């Protein structure tokens, strides 16, 4: 049986993650408050931002930017989008 969490993003009980997605307290917070659905949606947006904005995860500023965007996403605040990206558009 899968575990459920009260998802902070969707404000409802949804299936939770199987394990914390990040190490430390930040990962534990996400594990306890974010649903699997919201995490997968964030991962898709994060991948788009990394690719379309040519971010390098070696760059401390890029990681800080993604962390800020993740917080905004989970708090239902506006997030950046890639300038030329249209969801569902085929290349």
Instruction: Work out the number of β strands.
Output: 2
Radius of gyration computed on alpha carbons: 14 Å
Low-confidence stretches: none
Given helix and strand content, the structural type is: mainly alpha
- Count of folded domains: 1
CATH superfamily annotation: Fe(II) trafficking protein YggX
Outline: globular
Instruction: Identify the CATH architecture.
Output: Orthogonal Bundle
User: According to CATH, what is the class?
Assistant: Mainly Alpha
Could you characterize the architecture of this molecule?
- With 91 residues, the chain is mostly helical.
- The chain has a single domain, classed as YggX-like.
- The protein is built from three helices and two strands, in the order ββααα.
- The protein has a two-stranded antiparallel sheet with strand order 1-2.
- Strand 1 and strand 2 form a beta hairpin.
- Helix 2 runs antiparallel to helix 3.
- The chain is globular, with a radius of gyration of 14 Å.
Question: What are the key terms here?
Answer:
3 helices, YggX-like, mainly alpha
Provide a compact summary of the structure:
This protein has 3 helices and 2 strands; from the N terminus they run ββααα. With 91 residues, the chain is mainly alpha-helical.
Topology:
Layout: E1 4-7, E2 12-15, H1 24-33, H2 36-52, H3 60-74
Antiparallel strand pairs: 1-2
Helix pairs in contact: 2-3
């Amino acid at each position: 049986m899968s575990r459920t969490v009260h998802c902070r993003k969707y404000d409802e009980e949804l299936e939770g993650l199987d394990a914390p997605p990040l190490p430390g307290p930040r990962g534990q917070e996400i594990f306890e408050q974010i649903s699997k659905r919201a995490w997968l949606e964030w991962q898709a947006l994060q991948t788009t931002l990394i690719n379309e904005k040519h971010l390098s995860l070696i760059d401390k500023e890029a990681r800080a930017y993604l962390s800020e965007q993740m917080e905004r996403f989970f708090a239902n605040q506006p997030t950046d989008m890639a300038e030329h990206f249209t969801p569902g558009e085929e290349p």
